[in-house]
Amino acid sequence: MTALLVKNPAQIVTPRPGSLRGPELADLSVRSGRSIYVIDGVIQDIAPFEDLQNRAESDNAIVIDATGKAVVPGFIDAHSHVVFGGNRADEFALRTAGASYEEIATKGGGIANTVRATREASKAELKSIAMDRLNRALRQGTTTMEVKSGYGLDTATELKMLEVVAELNDEHPIDLIPTFLGAHSVPKGMDKADYITEVKAMIPQAAEIAKFCDVFCEQGYFTPAESLDIVGHAREHGMLPRLHANQFHSIGCIEAAVEMGATSVDHLEVLDAKEIALLAATDIGCVMLPGVSLFLDIPFAPGREIIDQGCLPVLASDFNPGSNMSLSLQMVMSLACMRMGMSVNESLACVTQNAAHALRLEKVGCLEPDWQADMIILDSPDYRDVAYFYGENHAYAVIKKGQLV
Ligand SMILES: [Zn+2]
């Protein structure tokens, strides 16, 4: 048995359990004068220190003094592309110096660049690069993370990426949730119908590892009908559907997501009132990715409307080499507050409890007895500093399943 006592934090802050909508999102529980007692990775009790002291002594508990520090649930990143080869800093430098997308593409840039590097990298190389990124995410408080394939665009590399995710999940403290995104793009020089046939042929093997099947539903990528075809096949093999939808155009992906019973729709930078109303009537997670809007200088998803109309909002990083090279969910919270009309409390609920819901995870994203002890001890007595004092890493210590990591 391993026991842990987080002693006397200034605040214990958590969203309420359950999938949260409307006013529930801002209704956080903020407790002071309490300590958190954990046994074998599960929260046993949240009570005054005096009530826990004797138990902690007889259980030989590790004691972390959290005086003057707030504690929040470990962050859950519901959308990322952490596994990929190469580095596109060159391209970023070109773009910031004024080069157009076309110029960058002719120089071999863009997604084709990452696909080439990911195909060329060995499994060990991909793992070691991704391990470094996971360490960075963990240091910033992320304790659970969804990770997609999608930079292979051929059977061998797509499966290699998923195997890397599975192995990293065993070796790294962050819990990783694998998603198959074979339909991220059509590989250069290949006919789309042929590639869709290949993606469908990957599905039985991909389903042995991946929990979700995702499709980039977008003009110039995959249509709603093609998305339905692919995820329909994935469903038969036990994967849950989700979509990259409405990043640049509204082409019927939301209707398709409702039809397929998607667990989430991700991006939503271009979303009209009719689509918001459709989503509000479902339990589809609306995953918003403000880091992408900042990085690409495109509109932000309408977070305020999504909340006010009763949808299930989620915030995630979309960490990826082309459109958001940041793992920081603390920055995501700040952007949601500063650019999307969301409150600090709402933004916290969206990277914890509602993110767990979008990933269909139980007993994470909340600090209550009987829940998994994933938590961040902040360097501040006030949890609101995470969004307010921005561009800083406020994680003083990170605890995953009751272990200091
Ligand atoms: Zn993405």
Offer a few descriptive terms.
globular; Urease, subunit C, domain 1; alpha/beta; 8-stranded parallel β-sheet; TIM Barrel; 6-stranded mixed β-sheet; 16 helices; single chain; 405 residues; 18 strands; binds zinc ion; 38% helix
Mean pLDDT: 96
For the report, how would you describe the main beta sheet? 8 strands, parallel
Task: List bound small molecules.
Answer: zinc ion
| Distance, first to last CA | 18 Å
At the third CATH level, what is the topology name of the largest domain?
A: TIM Barrel
Architecture overview:
Helices cover 38% and strands 21% of the residues. With 405 residues, the chain is an alpha/beta fold. It has two domains: 3-73 and 367-404, Urease, subunit C, domain 1; 75-358, Metal-dependent hydrolases (TIM Barrel). The strands form three sheets. An eight-stranded parallel beta sheet has the order 8-9-10-11-12-13-14-15. A six-stranded mixed beta sheet has the order 3-2-7-16-17-18, with no helix packed on it. Helix 9 (253-260) links the parallel strand 12 (240-245) and strand 13 (264-267). Helix 6 runs parallel beside helix 7 and helix 7 packs parallel to helix 8. The two termini are 18 Å apart. The model has no long low-confidence stretch (mean pLDDT 96). The protein binds zinc ion. The site of zinc ion (ZN) has 5 residues, from loops.
